Amino acid sequence: MGDVNNATANSHSTTPLQELEKIANENNLKLGDVEFARHMDKRDPLKYLRDEFHYPKMGDVLNTDPSIVDLSEDCVYFCGNSLGLCPKKTKEYMNIQIDKWAKLGVQGHTNGELPWAWCDELLEEDMAKIVGCKREEVSLMNGLTVNLHLLLISFYRPTKDRYKILCESKAFPSDHYTFESQSRLHGFDPKDAMICVEPREGEFTLRTEDILDVIEKQGDKIAVVCFSGVQYYTGQLFDIPKITQAGKAKGCHVGWDLAHAVGNVPLKIHDWGVDFACWCTYKYLNASAGGLAGLFIHENFQTNDFPKLLGWWGHDMKTRFQMNNQMDLIPGARGYRISNTPGFLCVPLKASLEIFKKTSVEELRKKSLVLTAYLEHLIQKSYQRPAGKAPEDDCDAVYIDIFTPSDPKQRGAQLSLAFNVCIEQVFKELEKRGVVCDKRFPRVIRITPVPMYCSFEDVHRFMGYLKDALVAAKGSLRHVDTHKV
């Protein structure tokens, strides 16, 4: 077993950073030197996984400056939080489906690899392992927001006294709009129906105890608790089991948007007693832009007495083609399918899930903990704001605040970097240097070293490009209000 895994073997007593420091000392290396990064990559037991993906070159990604970088080198792809890389098998598997369509036409629904009539069902077992549930509790269909709406039709059943939806104040817009529209559909004013938990003054992330306090005090009025597993803006990993337990103890239905959690952190949503969940597959699951989404319903709710929208694909396959308009609804998650699955969207998901089968989310998490800790350490070493120093005290200095929790147990792979200067110019200069990341206004650039295909040397290279980008951008930078999250 390599140093990457050794670095988390004693995580109960030491932090990932302490283990990195130990490895550096044992090998007479310095954390900030490229030799250390290369040592970690050499000993990484998961390094072979990078070869399973098409990793973009500097000359392939947009906006790189050939006078600054070697276009033949790999770019620094730190944007798996938004779109994962393309598995190499995707094109081969897609060609098989195109060829089948060309040769068989409609017969491809029930023949060949991934028969289109039940192609989604062939992937359910592998998906269930990643989210930690039983196969019959999961279904692959639609997009995330469509699935969230379908789930809330069943689980948001407000009454005169219990009608509120508890969520985070900066929920992803699609989730926020879903909560607003669902409350309006039931005749409620979203301003009254939605409880949006805010961070404490001067803090960037939510405290678990504050969420639990709201549940305890207002739980009798809350119909649904629905948070994101990992918060898209800050990268905070919520305490899913504790919040779920608290909500259910007060009689609330508890669900989760796992878009930024699935494939990123270990999940056990069945054992944790989560009522419902949904997620996309195009971030850490690498299943192509707008890829097929997932839906979970706990086995406690496998009966069909919920209100729900019905469609032909929720009808049991054994009797589906009798066409008698007498619904024979499939119990559980599959019964929520409305339309036939887009078969070609199963192809990249199949290619990605095969890569996940070569390892496990737990093994990926081991690497992720030390990889992100390495990135965090290098950023703090160079750009951490001195204690008690306000931006106006040194208008020429550039500081980086990390909105993501410093506790590794409260985050996934992502670090959200907030600058005391305008991020647009910084982002532009990073792009020139082949760094693929994304910005989220008002202040954040999200940097995500995905353990499945990113390396320690990628992190080291990023730090060099970040330094150069800040120097290049300095002349046009303007300082911003650091109190804005």
From TrEMBL:
Pathway: Amino-acid degradation; L-kynurenine degradation; L-alanine and anthranilate from L-kynurenine: step 1/1; Cofactor biosynthesis; NAD(+) biosynthesis; quinolinate from L-kynurenine: step 2/3. GO terms for cellular component: cytoplasm. GO terms for biological process: 'de novo' NAD+ biosynthetic process from L-tryptophan; anthranilate metabolic process; L-kynurenine catabolic process; L-tryptophan catabolic process to kynurenine; quinolinate biosynthetic process. Pfam families: KYNU_C. Its cofactor is pyridoxal 5'-phosphate. InterPro entries: Kynureninase, PyrdxlP-dep_Trfase, PyrdxlP-dep_Trfase_major, PyrdxlP-dep_Trfase_small. Its main location: cytoplasm. The modification N6-(pyridoxal phosphate)lysine is found at residue 283. One of its GO terms (molecular function) is kynureninase activity. Pyridoxal 5'-phosphate binds at residues 144-145, 172-175, 228, 257, 260, 282, 312, 340. It is an enzyme of class 3 (hydrolase). Its EC number is 3.7.1.3. It is found in: Cytoplasm. Keywords: Cytoplasm, Hydrolase, Pyridine nucleotide biosynthesis, Pyridoxal phosphate. It catalyses: 3-hydroxy-L-kynurenine + H2O = 3-hydroxyanthranilate + L-alanine + H(+); L-kynurenine + H2O = anthranilate + L-alanine + H(+). Catalyzes the cleavage of L-kynurenine (L-Kyn) and L-3-hydroxykynurenine (L-3OHKyn) into anthranilic acid (AA) and 3-hydroxyanthranilic acid (3-OHAA), respectively. Homodimer. Belongs to the kynureninase family. This is Kynureninase. The lineage of its organism: Eukaryota, Metazoa, Spiralia, Lophotrochozoa, Mollusca.
